[in-house]
C-alpha cells in the first residue's frame, strides 16, 4: 500500500520516515486506581491519508448518525455490530496496518511502585500483583493499590510526607500477616523488601517536590508512545508520529520522547483534522472496551478474537486469565510488561 507523507524530514538516518497516526483511550491522569476506567489503550495506524478518509466515510455511510464527530462508542453500539466487526476483521481497513498497546492500570501501579522501591519489575511485580490480589482480600487489596497510587503520583494534597507514611503503614500491617511467608508464594519476602525501602520513597517524594517531572511515573501515555515507536521502527526505520492533541504532551516531554524513542518527529493535531488519527481514535476506544470487558470476566469472545492480532505482546498486563485470550500468541504472556 502506498504511503503518503505530509511532513518532509531531512537529515534523519535510515531513510524516509514512516508516518504513524496515534490516539489513546482511558486517560485518567495519575489517578489509576479509582478513575473512570481500568484499562488504558494507545492505538497507532499506518495508512495513507486518502485511504483513511475513505474508510472513515464508509463508517459514516454505514452508521448514518447525525453526529459531526464519530467516536468509538458509535461503533460499539449493538445495532452497529456488523460495522465494528468489519473494521477489525481481516477484510477491514486496519488489519495489518494498526497496533494497540494495552495497560492494565492497577498492574501498572504495582509495576511502577516495585521499580521505584526495589529497582526491579517483571517477576517480582507479577508475583505481588497475582498473590496480593488472592491473599489480601478485596478491601485490603484496594487500600494497598490506592496507597501505592498516592505514593507515586506527583500531585498530592496535604503534608509532603503523608503519602509515604500511609504507604509504609499499609506495608507494615501486611508484613505482620505474612512474616515468615506462611503461604510459600514469595509474598512475605516481597513485603519485607518493600518495608526496607523507605529511604527510596522519601528520596522520590523530595525529588518531585523540588523538580517538575518531565516523566511522571504514573502516566501510561509516555511508555506507550515509546513502545509504539519501537513497534513501527522495524529494525531501525525512522518513525514520525502524528498524535491527537494531549495536554500531557508538552514541549519538554515531546523533546524527551524524540530522544528516548529516537523519533524523527512528533506532531500534534486535532483528531478531526486527520482521518488516520480518527481511525486510531476508534481503535483505541474499541480496544479499551474489549480489554476491560475481558478483564472483568464478561468479554465477548468474537470481539476479543478480532482484537487479538492488533495487541502488542509487550503490553503492560498482569491478569493472567484475560491475557491468555487478549495476548497475540500464548507465549507472549511471559513478556507482557512493556517498555518504560
UniProtKB/TrEMBL annotation:
Record's protein name: DUF3800 domain-containing protein
Species of origin = Streptomyces bluensis
The domain of life is Bacteria
Amino acid at each position: 500500500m502506498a504511503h503518503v507523507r505530509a511532513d518532509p524530514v531531512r537529515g534523519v538516518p535510515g531513510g524516509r520516515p514512516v508516518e504513524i497516526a496515534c490516539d489513546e483511550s482511558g486517560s485518567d491522569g495519575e489517578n489509576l486506581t479509582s478513575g473512570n476506567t481500568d484499562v488504558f489503550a494507545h492505538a497507532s495506524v499506518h495508512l495513507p491519508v486518502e485511504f483513511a478518509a475513505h474508510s472513515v466515510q464508509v463508517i459514516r455511510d454505514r452508521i448514518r448518525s447525525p453526529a459531526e464527530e464519530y467516536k468509538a462508542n458509535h461503533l460499539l453500539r449493538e445495532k452497529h455490530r456488523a460495522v465494528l466487526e468489519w473494521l477489525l476483521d481481516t477484510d477491514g481497513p486496519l488489519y495489518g496496518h494498526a497496533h494497540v498497546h494495552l495497560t492494565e492500570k492497577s498492574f501498572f501501579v504495582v509495576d511502577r511502585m516495585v521499580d521505584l522501591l526495589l529497582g526491579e519489575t517483571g517477576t517480582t511485580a507479577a508475583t505481588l500483583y497475582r498473590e496480593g490480589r488472592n491473599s489480601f482480600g478485596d478491601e485490603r487489596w484496594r487500600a494497598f493499590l490506592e496507597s501505592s497510587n498516592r505514593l507515586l503520583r506527583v500531585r498530592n494534597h496535604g503534608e509532603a510526607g503523608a503519602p509515604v507514611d500511609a504507604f509504609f503503614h499499609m506495608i507494615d500491617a501486611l508484613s505482620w500477616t505474612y512474616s515468615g511467608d506462611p503461604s510459600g508464594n514469595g509474598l512475605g519476602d516481597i513485603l519485607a523488601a518493600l518495608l526496607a525501602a523507605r529511604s527510596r520513597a522519601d528520596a522520590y517524594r523530595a525529588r518531585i517536590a523540588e523538580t517538575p517531572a518531565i516523566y511522571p511515573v504514573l502516566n501510561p501515555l509516555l511508555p506507550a508512545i515509546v513502545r509504539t515507536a519501537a513497534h513501527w521502527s522495524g529494525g531501525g526505520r525512522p518513525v514520525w508520529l502524528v498524535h491527537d492533541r494531549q495536554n500531557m504532551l508538552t514541549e519538554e516531554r515531546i523533546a524527551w520522547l524524540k530522544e528516548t524513542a529516537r523519533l524523527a518527529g512528533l506532531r500534534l493535531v486535532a483528531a478531526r483534522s486527520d482521518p488516520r488519527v480518527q481511525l486510531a481514535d476508534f481503535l483505541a476506544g474499541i480496544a479499551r472496551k474489549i480489554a476491560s470487558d475481558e478483564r472483568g470476566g464478561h468479554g465477548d469472545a468474537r470481539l476479543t478474537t478480532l482484537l487479538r492480532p492488533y495487541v502488542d505482546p509487550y503490553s503492560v498486563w498482569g491478569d493472567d486469565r484475560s491475557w491468555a485470550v487478549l495476548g497475540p500468541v500464548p507465549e507472549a504472556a511471559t513478556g507482557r510488561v512493556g517498555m518504560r
